[in-house]
Amino acid sequence: HNGVRTAIARVPLAPGLRLSRLKKLKVGWAVCRIKELTPRHGCARCSSTEHETAKCEGPELRACFKCKKVGHLIASCSSPSPTAGNHRADKPATGSSQTQ
Predict the structure, then answer these.
(1) Over the range 43-73, which residues count as b (16 or more CB within 10 Å of their CB) and which as e?
(2) In whole angstroms, what is the distance from residue 71 CA to residue 63 CA?
(3) Residue 76 CB contacts under 8 Å (≥ 6 apart), including other chains
(4) What is the pLDDT of residues 63-87, one digit of tens each?
(5) Are the C-beta atoms of residues 64 and 77 closer than 8 Å to each other?
(6) pLDDT digits (tens, 9 = 90+) for 21-65
(7) What DSSP designation does 84 have?
(8) What sections of the chain are H helices per DSSP?
(9) Which residues on adjacent β-strands are paired with residue 24?
(10) 11, 31, 60, 63: which could form a disulfide with 16 (CB 3.0–4.6 Å)?
(11) How far out from the chain centre does Cα 47 lie?
(12) Nearest CA to 77 among 68, 87, 90?
């Protein structure tokens, strides 16, 4: 991660404008760059910039996060859990305080 992290903060307009003029902000020991997040417009379903997701009639291009297949999303996925049958599923993570 190269020591770089990202945070998004929603702030009222006036303080947000003041923050954006600062360009940097000290948080603890870190000095963080500040930039305004521009809203993304377009369709999350088919990636078109011609319409919004609610009005999409194009093909579904989003893939299920669980099985990586197009045509359904994780809420309706019937694939087994990725850790099912995995030999690591019943072992503690390396460096954890759990013992077997």
Answers:
(1) bebbeeeeeeeeebeeeeeeebebeeeeebe
(2) 7
(3) none
(4) 888 898 888 888 889 888 766 555 5
(5) yes
(6) 888 888 888 888 888 887 777 787 787 888 888 888 887 777 888
(7) T
(8) 13-22
(9) 33
(10) 11
(11) 16
(12) 68
